[in-house]
UniProtKB/TrEMBL annotation:
Lineage: Bacteria, Bacillati, Bacillota, Bacilli, Bacillales
Species for this entry: Cohnella xylanilytica
Record domain Fumarate reductase/succinate dehydrogenase flavoprotein-like C-terminal: where: 434-526
Active site: R288
Protein name, as recorded: L-aspartate oxidase
Cofactor: FAD
Length: 537
């Protein structure tokens, strides 16, 4: 049983910090929401490392929005719904495609500089998009440029107080209302932070897997915190694996953007054969789950640990101009994108599920909001369309602040804390435990799943449950508790969904089953796993 709180505490015995809006996490979701909220509120932004440590920073491809006259919101809507494999919320998708262009304009006003050609935005195309609608910056460094611009706005904003190197341990609730958060300072002391609204912008769960494109901070903290607080967690089985991450000795699993395939790159197995024609009519630009499983099949058939991505037929000038970051990174490891086939393999990339929200980002817990990858807005369904993630964060970030601005001041206080009498330090190192968890997830809850493996994986994860009775004090211990929580949620959801859809593939149920499974999986603490019908498309 996962407890309500990770640590014992007495709210009356702790210092209290008052503010209006608490933003937990950075990335595009946290930065954008903090800037918007600061116009009418005092904002406290809490990051467990710094403003520059987030998935956004590593986003290469770009941000999807209807800019071109040849494009339309209806085209963008259709592409998103198709990729989402029947599980998107059509209303949420409508919000995204119609409000995305204004969100891009807001980023520009905040100082983001997107690439242009001949006086117009340079738009590219990515997998499963029918039109060129991806804006990018510095070729393939879109996320870094957005973080640069927004972080400067945050740092220069007197209305935003920034706490770097602070860890939000748990959300504080009373009678179904979120009052704030319990936060651990760099020196290990703790403080109660109170506000009229709390926004979770904590990113995804990439560190559940040994091979991921995500940074070290992506440990699912917000999803786990929200679950412990009683929030509804939705669709955790849909974890997207990016098909093409660098797979080379000594190199990290660096993302080789989908935009490389969008600009004409092809995939080859180790025998040099192009293979996507055997798997999907859209070839290399098929949805990510299809491409990732195709690569896995080729790796198994050729007894290899990778395949190649090949863009050597394009001009060196185009490659260096369009993908300077990827080109330079590969060059550091002796790989030349203009002349070499680059070895790649799938890696954990993006969580489609998360904390369920309404169309203004509010959860079932009053005054608790979620934005970005930590949320489940209904936009992504079973498989996120490339470059929709950055758009979602700004569109729903603005909507969250609109809702918060209408909230009355917070009332009430925490009447009780947590005194479960935890004792003893954690047995065994967190590094060992984390690696064991990651191996379990890769083996049983990866790109291909089946009932026997998922059941075995769930049993292995449950053996770690005594962890929650230990005194957890260090950041890495608290992070591991959150990873374990998310691993259990993901595995339970994957075991319950007896079909294959989007990023969730069951070898024992290889077909999509709309008659029985065109619905969401719902997880809520102290309640049995449930289901929720999808809105009509």
């Amino acid at each position: 049983m996962i407890p309500r709180y990770l640590v014992d505490f007495d709210p009356d015995g702790l210092p209290v910090h008052e503010t209006d809006v608490i933003v937990i996490g950075a990335g595009i979701a946290g930065l954008f929401a903090a800037i918007k909220a600061s116009k009418n509120n005092r904002v406290l932004m809490i990051t467990k490392k710094s403003l520059f440590d987030s998935n956004t920073r590593y986003a290469q491809g770009g941000i999807a929005a209807v800019i071109s006259e040849e494009d339309s919101p209806e085209f963008h809507r259709q592409d998103t719904l198709i990729a989402g494999a029947g599980l998107c919320d059509p209303e949420a998708v409508d919000v995204l495609v119609h409000e995305g262009p204004e969100g891009v304009q807001a980023l520009i006003r905040y100082g983001t500089i997107f690439d242009e050609e001949d006086g117009h935005f340079a738009l590219t195309k990515e997998g499963a998009h029918s039109q060129r609608r991806i804006l990018h910056a510095n070729g393939d460094a879109t996320g870094f440029e957005i973080v640069r611009a927004l972080a400067k706005k945050v740092q220069d904003n007197p209305g935003i107080e920034l706490w770097d190197d602070h860890f939000a341990i748990d959300l504080l609730t009373e009678d179904g209302v979120c009052l704030g958060a319990l936060v651990q300072k760099p020196d290990g002391s703790r403080v109660v932070v109170r506000g009229k609204a709390t926004i979770l912008c904590t990113g995804g769960t990439g560190q559940l897997y040994r091979y991921t494109t995500n940074p070290e901070v992506a440990t699912g903290d917000g999803i786990a915190m929200a679950y412990r607080a009683g929030a509804v967690i939705r669709d955790m089985e849909f974890n997207q694996f990016h098909p093409t991450s660098l797979c080379y000795p000594g190199a990290p699993r660096f993302l080789i953007s989908e935009a490389v395939r969008g600009e004409g790159a092809v995939l080859r197995n180790i025998n040099g054969e192009r293979f996507m024609d055997r798997y999907h009519p859209q070839l290399e630009l098929a949805p990510r789950d299809v491409v990732a499983r195709a690569i896995l099949s080729e790796m198994e058939a050729t007894k290899s640990t990778y395949v190649y991505i090949d863009i050597t037929h394009e001009s060196p000038e185009l490659i260096k101009h369009r993908f300077p970051t990827i080109y330079e990174f590969c060059l550091n490891y002796g790989l030349d994108l203009t002349t070499d086939w680059i070895p790649v393999a799938p890696a954990a990339h993006y969580m489609m599920g998360g904390v369920r929200t309404d169309l203004h980002g509010e959860t079932n817990i009053q005054r608790l909001f979620a934005c970005g990858e930590a949320s489940s807005t209904g936009v992504h369904g079973a498989n996120r369309l490339a470059s929709n993630s950055l758009s979602e964060a700004i569109v729903f970030g603005r909507r969250i602040v609109e809702r918060i601005d209408r909230l009355p001041p917070a009332e009430g206080r925490m009447r009780t804390g947590c005194a479960e009498g935890r004792h003893g330090s954690l047995m065994g190192t967190v590094v060992e435990r984390r690696l064991k968890l990651q191996k379990t997830m890769v083996r049983y809850v990866g790109l291909r799943r089946n009932a026997a493996g998922l059941s075995k994986g769930l049993d292995e994860l449950k053996r770690q449950l005594p962890l929650f009775q230990s005194c957890l004090t260090k950041r890495e211990e608290l992070e591991f508790a959150n990873l374990l929580t998310c691993a259990l949620l993901m595995t339970e959801a994957a075991l319950s969904r007896e079909e294959s859809r989007g990023a969730h593939y069951r070898e024992d149920f290889p077909e999509r089953d709309d008659a029985n499974w065109r619905k969401h999986t719902i997880l809520q603490r102290e309640k049995a796993i449930g289901e929720e019908v999808v809105g009509h498309v």
